[in-house]
Each structure stands twice: as structure tokens, then as C-alpha cells.
Amino acid sequence: MKIAVLPGDGIGPEIINEAVKVLDALGESFELETAQVGGAGYAAHGHPLPEGTLKLAKAADAVLFGAVGDYQYDSLERALRPEQAILGLRKELGLFANLRPAILYPELAGASTLKPEVVSGLDILIIRELTGDIYFGKPRGVRECPDGPFAGQREGFDTMRYAEGEIRRIAHVAFQAARKRDSRVTSVDKANVLETFQFWRDIVTDVHKEYPDVELEHMYVDNAAMQLVRAPKKFDVLVTGNMFGDILSDAAAMLTGSIGMLPSASLDANSKGLYEPSHGSAPDIAGKGVANPLATILSAAMMLRFTFGKTEQADRIENAVKRVLAQGLRTPDIHEPGSTKVGTKEMGDAVVAALA
Ligand code: IPM
Ligand code: MN
């Protein structure tokens, strides 16, 4: 059970510390090795995804990832920016299936910006394709505009594309995940405008023939964004491309009160995975000891479940998190009148204590 631990930048190291503390407390024989990534990778080795870090990640069974990005690296050329580390890891490790569950813990119903009756009991799973789409499509760049009223000026351009096999495999992931839940899939696209997503819709419809027991509905992404804030509980599994999934998963995160609560798993075709909180590096609060470590701790639980098949230990962590929330412990992002404000370390310690 080899785990590559990549803390990254901003609050990354603080939240990863707490997740490692929880893993250590389980009494399993994990082999943890830490390496630098993101801005920290650039500062130490001149590249956001240093060779040694990539090698370690490839050799490990799972990667536990913090977050990358910091203001000081914003002016670097694109290839050297911290974000390239996570994009490179996803591509190099073939992590095409990103699972982002949005679950509202009953204790946090009041922390959501939406009315409690709209979100209470929320349990949806967003499945985002992670290695294709406009994120990786080529060609891309800045060139001379070839035609139209702006011909001759500079223009920026990217390429949206999805191969049939890419759509098929993520559709299979979605239908299979749905079978373990409420057997409903909503495929989100923009088939009314984009060729890529008309093709997406056609292929998902075809894969669906193998899953007659699962209900499939297609929805345009603009409507999906609206439904997510109007009646989010109507969804069960939502599957979509890389770009739409990026945007919709942030929106879904806020339904649950705080993005600081949301874990994620990025999986390849086997059981290798990268596990990271859905949130970013939050440089504005880095080093202050106030970041919420629960998304990262819950990501470690997903790692135990998906990569190592340790269901009981995963349940133990998830139950411990529920217990500390029930005790009223809250980091500032989820703090409400009447709850007990704690910092990153206290929250991690409380989870460890609640494991017993
Ligand atoms: C995410 C992040 C990344 C993405 C960034 C950091 C490249 O926003 O994991 O959602 O856009 O995929
Ligand atoms: Mn994002």
C-alpha cells in the first residue's frame, strides 16, 4: 500500500498533515513518501511537476494530493504554473474519471446558502471526465486571426474534442456508479450548440443500451446549472465533460455549505487513483492554521475505499467526521453561532479521537 503524498502549496501542507495523522491512526501498514509539487516543486526543482515527483506518483498505488497554486507564481509562463502539476498528473497517470460527491451533512444544513428544505438530505455524485475536452485539446494558443471582422488581429484559441472511446469509458463509470445508488444518470452536455457534445449525447445514449436498469436523462449544461441551485436533490449521478464538470462541481460544492467539506477521487481504468480535496490552495489563509482539513481527510477515506478496498476503515473515517460535526466542532468556513470554532490541527485531532 504505497501512497505518494504531495502537499503542494498554500494550505496544502496543513490539510495534508491532518489527513496523514488520520491514516497513521488507523494502524495499517501504509508506506508514505512525500514529494514537492506545484509552486513548491517549481521553487525546489524548477518545475511544477518535477521528474522525481512524477516517478514517485507513477510507482505508488495511490496519490494523496493537497492543493497547488500561489499568487507569486501567477506571472510565470503557463508551462511552469503550479496548475500544470495537477493537469500533468491527471494526464500522465490516465486518471480520466473524477468522482466528486456532494453530500450535505445534516449538522451543516444551516451553513448552506440555500434554504434547508432545498438541500437537506442532499447526496449527489458528479462524475467529471478529467483527461479530455477543451482542457487538453490541441491545437491551442495565440495566433493571427485568419478570417471575419477581426482578421489580422491576434486571437486566442483552444480545441474542444472528445474521442468515442473517451466518452464510452466515462459513461460506463457513471452507469456502474448509478447502480450502487439510485440508478439514475443525468448526462450534461451542450448538444444544441456544440458538435462535440452532440456526439457525446449520441455515445452516452448508445452505452446506455447496456444498462436498461438505469434511468438516463440528458440535460443542457445551462439548465443543469439552474437545476443544481433550484432542486439539487432531483439528481443522483451527474456525468459530464471536463470543462462543464469543473464549473458544476464548484456550484454543487456550495450546496453543502462549504467547499472545504468536499473530497474527490480521480481514477484510472484499474484502481489507481489520485485523491484530493475539491477546493484549491487558498493562499489567503495559508499558514494561519484555520483551513478545514475535512475534505482532505474524506479524500483519504475515498482512497481506502477505491484503491485499497478497505471499506471498513473508510467507514471509520467517515463516521469519525460525522461525530466531530455532531460535537459542534467547526473550522471558520463552516462556523455558525453556537458551534465551537476550531483550527486545522484541532479538527484533525478531533477526527483521530473520534476514530476510536
Ligand atoms: C479543479 C481545479 C483544476 C481544474 C485547476 C487547478 C487546474 O479547478 O480540480 O477543479 O480546473 O481542473
Ligand atoms: Mn475546479
UniProtKB/TrEMBL annotation:
<keyword id="KW-0028">Amino-acid biosynthesis</keyword>
<feature type="binding site">
    <location>
        <position position="100"/>
    </location>
    <ligand>
        <name>substrate</name>
    </ligand>
</feature>
<feature type="binding site">
    <location>
        <position position="246"/>
    </location>
    <ligand>
        <name>Mg(2+)</name>
    </ligand>
</feature>
<feature type="binding site">
    <location>
        <begin position="280"/>
        <end position="292"/>
    </location>
    <ligand>
        <name>NAD(+)</name>
    </ligand>
</feature>
<protein>
    <recommendedName>
        <fullName>3-isopropylmalate dehydrogenase</fullName>
        <ecNumber>1.1.1.85</ecNumber>
    </recommendedName>
</protein>
<feature type="binding site">
    <location>
        <position position="90"/>
    </location>
    <ligand>
        <name>substrate</name>
    </ligand>
</feature>
<keyword id="KW-0479">Metal-binding</keyword>
<feature type="binding site">
    <location>
        <position position="222"/>
    </location>
    <ligand>
        <name>substrate</name>
    </ligand>
</feature>
<feature type="binding site">
    <location>
        <position position="250"/>
    </location>
    <ligand>
        <name>Mg(2+)</name>
    </ligand>
</feature>
<keyword id="KW-0100">Branched-chain amino acid biosynthesis</keyword>
<keyword id="KW-0432">Leucine biosynthesis</keyword>
<dbReference type="Pfam" id="PF00180">
    <property type="entry name" value="Iso_dh"/>
</dbReference>
<feature type="binding site">
    <location>
        <position position="222"/>
    </location>
    <ligand>
        <name>Mg(2+)</name>
    </ligand>
</feature>
<comment type="pathway">
    <text>Amino-acid biosynthesis; L-leucine biosynthesis; L-leucine from 3-methyl-2-oxobutanoate: step 3/4.</text>
</comment>
<comment type="similarity">
    <text>Belongs to the isocitrate and isopropylmalate dehydrogenases family. LeuB type 1 subfamily.</text>
</comment>
<feature type="site" description="Important for catalysis">
    <location>
        <position position="190"/>
    </location>
</feature>
<keyword id="KW-0560">Oxidoreductase</keyword>
<dbReference type="InterPro" id="IPR019818">
    <property type="entry name" value="IsoCit/isopropylmalate_DH_CS"/>
</dbReference>
<keyword id="KW-0464">Manganese</keyword>
<feature type="site" description="Important for catalysis">
    <location>
        <position position="135"/>
    </location>
</feature>
<keyword id="KW-0460">Magnesium</keyword>
<dbReference type="GO" id="GO:0003862">
    <property type="term" value="F:3-isopropylmalate dehydrogenase activity"/>
</dbReference>
<comment type="function">
    <text>Catalyzes the oxidation of 3-carboxy-2-hydroxy-4-methylpentanoate (3-isopropylmalate) to 3-carboxy-4-methyl-2-oxopentanoate. The product decarboxylates to 4-methyl-2 oxopentanoate.</text>
</comment>
<comment type="subunit">
    <text>Homodimer.</text>
</comment>
<dbReference type="InterPro" id="IPR004429">
    <property type="entry name" value="Isopropylmalate_DH"/>
</dbReference>
<feature type="domain" description="Isopropylmalate dehydrogenase-like">
    <location>
        <begin position="2"/>
        <end position="351"/>
    </location>
</feature>
<keyword id="KW-0963">Cytoplasm</keyword>
<feature type="binding site">
    <location>
        <position position="128"/>
    </location>
    <ligand>
        <name>substrate</name>
    </ligand>
</feature>
<dbReference type="InterPro" id="IPR024084">
    <property type="entry name" value="IsoPropMal-DH-like_dom"/>
</dbReference>
<keyword id="KW-0520">NAD</keyword>
